[in-house]
Amino acid sequence: MSTVTGKSLRWSVTRGLDAAIRNAPKTSGVYAIGIRASLLGLPTDFQWVYIGKSKALPRRLAEHRKEIEENPRLQAWLTENYNRVEIWVARVDNDALAAVETKLIKELQPDANRIRYLN
Predict the structure, then answer these.
(1) pTM for the structure as a whole
(2) Distances from the Cα of 5 to the Cα of 33, 49, 96, angstroms
(3) Residue 27 has what DSSP assignment?
(4) Residue 111 in contact with residue 51, Cβ under 8 Å?
(5) For tag attachment on the chain, is the N or C end more exposed, with fewer CB atoms within 10 Å?
(6) For the segment 88-101, what is each residue's pLDDT rounded down to a tens digit?
């Protein structure tokens, strides 16, 4: 697992929240929810919508199901984009979770995160 916020993490990506819940490692880590824009199948951009952390990734990802999502902005976005969503997951040691999540939110400024950090 990675504990250094300045180095690259090993990300895995899954299309669809249900698949991400099934495939997520049963460890601590960070995750990013977003959608890829494309032109004729060629990726042109990526919209990061939510960054999170958890000590139990499958459990936390399950809490983002559109039927039970408590964040109104994320719930609306998931309802509109549920079949196109991508979930990126990286294992991170418990003691580095907050630092890695903060760094990602600060740099990516995802639309649905309630917490904002100044650059």
Answers:
(1) 0.89
(2) 19, 20, 8
(3) S
(4) no
(5) C
(6) 999 999 999 999 99
The side-by-side arrangement of strands in the sheet containing 42-54 is: 11-15, 86-91, 29-39, 42-54
Enter the tokens of residue 101: 């999540």
Instruction: Give the whole-angstrom CA distance, residue 39 versus residue 110.
Output: 22
* 3-class secondary-structure state, position 11: strand
Domain extent listing, the chain: 11-108
Q: pLDDT under 50 in the chain at which residues? A: 1-5
CATH top-level class of 11-108: alpha beta
Q: Hey, what are 9's tokens?
A: 């993490």
Distance CA(67)–CA(119), nearest Å, equals 33
pLDDT of residue 115: 83
Q: Yes or no: say if 28 and 92 are a contact pair by the CB < 8 Å rule.
A: yes
User: Cα 79 to the chain's mean position, in Å?
Assistant: 16
Amino acid at 36: R
